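Example with several molecule types.
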Amino acid sequence: MNIATPPTQVTTHALRDAIVRHLCYSFGREPDYAGTEDWRMALSFAIRDHIADSWFKAAGVARREGAKRVYYLSMEFLIGRLLEDGIVNLGLVDQARDALAALGQDYDTVLADEPDAALGNGGLGRLAACFLESLSTLGCPAYGYGIRYEHGLFRQSFQGGRQIEAPETWLTQRHAWEFERPDARFHIGFGGHVEERDGASVWHPGEYVDAEAYDTPIVGWKGRWANTLRLWSAKAADPFDLPAFNRGDFAAAAEPEALARTISRVLYPDDTTEQGKELRLKQEFFLVAAALRDILARFDKEHSDIRQLPEKVAIQLNDTHPAVAGPELVRILHDERGLPFDEAMTITRACLSYTNHTLLPEALESWGEGLFGRLLPRHLQIVDMIDNEHYEANPSRTQSMRSDHQVKMGQLSFVMAHKVNGVSALHTELMKKTVFSELHRLHPDRIVNQTNGVTPRRWLLACNPRLSSLITDTIGEGWVDDLERLRELEPAIEDAAWRERFDAAKRANKADLSDWMAATQGVSVNPDAMFDVQIKRLHEYKRQHLNILETIALWQEIKDNPNADWTPRVVLFAGKAAPGYAFAKDIIRLINDVAEVLNADKTTRDVLQVLFLPNYNVTLAERLIPAADLSEQISTAGKEASGTGNMKFALNGALTIGTLDGANVEIREHVGADNFFLFGMTASEVMERRKIEDHAAQAIAADPRLARALEAVRTGAFCPDEPDRYAHIAANLAGPDYFLVASDFADYWRASREADAAFADPATWTRKAALNTARSGWFSSDRTIRGYMQDIWAARSYLGQ
Ligand code: GPV
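Resulting structure tokens for the full complex:
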């Protein structure tokens, strides 16, 4: 193996030989008998060898330099496929394509064989994956810590328009990227009791489960650095009950293994809603305890004074899910290592920081003290000590972490962190004014903003090769790891010939998507229509129902006047609803029913089509985003912490129709108000509007279009066999309408018609679209990670060391 070759200089020839060698000797298949999966695995291993070289080198540098490491603790890593990511980052696209062709294999077919690893629900998990890639691109020594779920996010299909959930089984297809680490294995305790001995407390857990590590290398741009994603798998501490087996009770003999494994069995299919299950708290502690043991073992190998921990270790809590890291680290430092409590607190706080990802009250985690104390008796005592210490100086306890017999994880995280960040400018300001107002008054320097970002390697270079080549032809390839250089495109945008090339790239992406939809969904759409796309988790605050209502109203208006000059539109949706979220699932079904009626309507279908694509995941996003013209970012203002899909669309030259919510605000500032279709109430107008008791009724009375669309929903125009199927949705929108769909409808309609008019003028539209690409460079996760490194972690880059 030529491990000395810099990865970017590997020849087609060498890569072909490596593929064949792995096919034969890693997988025991001769080329003539190999199937697509064999070729995919062999190519993956050939690529992985080069990633491993970068990885060893990076780890060596970090060890030699005694580097500070960043540890990103997250219950979710939505990494998607990794093969193309590796090939693109190593600069081996041409070589891989040619090597496979020489072996009689098609590159795209082989890449498409890889399962999409969905160890996350949505934005929060995808952000963690983008961050790992940027940490590697920037050469910042880092580990992601998470759980190796056997089943990731469920697979979605539709039956009669209804969402059907099936278990996802990414591990049953062979997975090329992980290395099992039997030597990195820890006993994790739960339950039991606390013994007081000579003024010290000792936790005696009542049961143990083992955490075993699996490592996946995450390579950065040009293979200059690679970090580790370390996922923990639960195994029985004492796997096999031999006496039971010898008695012939085989089920009892296997039980310890089965029970232990339930901890890493499934990802909770929850997105920003509270999950009050004991197993979830067990999962959270399992991740935290294993990660901290691992972090301290690495620290102890390199350093002798535990007081240096904050100089060498930065731990980021991705939302409150890993918040028990606070009390657990205090427990280790105080109970196990004998530091005074105050000092244990100081060190812990200097290591920890916390990212908040939502203000939705139902999504702020809290645990009943009964459950918490049963599972983690010593931690409950420590939480009370932390709470008392923190509030000694402050008699008001309105934002205490211990009220109503609950443990409030947001408050706990805030108190245990030296920095707390929001994920967009608006969200951070709202954190200061609402959920954390009192804590912010006490600690005015603690809250900082780090607006989210996305990795341009996956979300432009890899997913949109046509646009990427045009950009590189125009300004060179420096933009890939210096995304603000996309600004250098602006002069070219004034050139009509260049705009034609930009247009051709988008048109070809749309044609590819149409072909794919025809082949997989049996629906053919007009690739010259505006592709209007809303893809994200289903949630009332994200307002997919606002979009479908507006689509219904448009359909009604086209029917009234079929010969008018309508701008053709294809309205595309994709996204999963939490299995227990009945209202969100009904919205999916409504959209599917509407699609069926509209797509069959001969008078309107040439200008308006609707499609809900099943099983939204990272791979589908990579297909849809490069082909989008219009990006729907229409959440109720104040509810979407940031959004990251919004950034991916703008970067790929889609125009946003959106509210002043989350990062939309900053996107609009960057791309320019002229290149963004703004509508709707602001966050403060939303709060005022809710005070009007009959706000929905007023809005409906004032807008005949809205009234008519709602009436169609209420009376079953899209489900004549069961006319009252959606009466409850119509009633909700006419009644409480907490998310203010009715109140924002008229302005949304107006903005949508402006988008139609702009799209009807291709020269203007292309200019706006290209300006979105040129001005979205700030939304690179490289910029975000630099912000965390400077303002939160005090971490540095070791590139070139
Ligand atoms: I809390 N988010 C998520 O995907 N899952 C969660 O459990 C929680 C938050 C999302 C927010 O909803 C998005 O606005 C945000 O862009 C994303 O986290 C990343 O910050």
